[in-house]
User: What shape does this take?
Amino acid sequence: MSLLAVLLVLMIIGAIIAIETTNLLSSIVCVGAVGFLISIAFLFMGAPDLAITQLVVEALCLIILIRATINRDLTSVTGDREFFGLTVTVAMVLVCLIAGVKVFEDFPAFGQTVMDRMADTPSSVYLAHGTEQTGARNVITALILGYRNYDALGQVAVIFCAVIGALAILRRPAKKDQKAKDSEADAV
Assistant: This one.
């Protein structure tokens, strides 16, 4: 069975656990594990830019969700679920470790370029036909403004929205609002 199939099965298991668990914090951690596995799958499919974007958005979403969960005191763990949660966590860590080792095994030897291993890589096509297909003066302009402009715009928009959302949730309340709440509490 290929590694992508194993990652897919683990993502499905993580999603089922996230849906079925009664503990909200465990559910959030499982959703985070699914997102991390998706980023590893992006790496294996040759899309490191999507993997980086997925990791950034996943980390920010986890921060937001964990902060919201802890603020509501909904993180109590029942005795029966501690062993199950620990087992799932250890299994996920081992799978991520094995996937990381597998990624580094597939790296080319030091000094060997990827273009030497694969002739049809996008970079080879960009270098050979970039200026002809886009009409740009050089290959870098062709790459940035011809081939990757919408992709880069989408990634920047996703990261910008994730950062703004995290800042909106994690910001501290203004001192005036806090003083008004304190005076209301004292009046009661």
Observations:
- Residues 79-105 form the longest helix (27 residues).
- The radius of gyration is 23 Å.
- Residues 3-107+148-187 form one domain.
- The CA atoms of residues 107 and 113 lie 10 Å apart.
